[in-house]
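Team,

Forwarding the record for the chain on the shared tracking sheet. I've put the sequence and predicted structure together so nobody has to dig through attachments.
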Amino acid sequence: MKMVMAVVQDKDSPRLAQNLVKAGVRATKLASTGGFLHAGNTTFMIGTEEDRLEEVLEIIRQSCRSREQVVTPMAPMGNQMESFIPYPVSVQVGGATVFVLDVERFEHF
């Protein structure tokens, strides 16, 4: 058994949840916040048998896409002005960050 933890942008969360349900894959959704942009994310915890792992990963690939976003960095606190970028920059956001973990034991009560 495997535990798939997928951190996805909130914009991709409804599509991923719908596609997982269509495929009969159970998942738990957790609200989370990204550290870099302080933007909303959703973390999906998906327990799956090893023979369905590639199917689950493909559903995530098809449901989550990366996109460009223009952000204006917040001014730093303290003496870190030398590394501050005072103008908007384009960054790549979205897609999915996925961790696949071995599950030693699984019980459902």
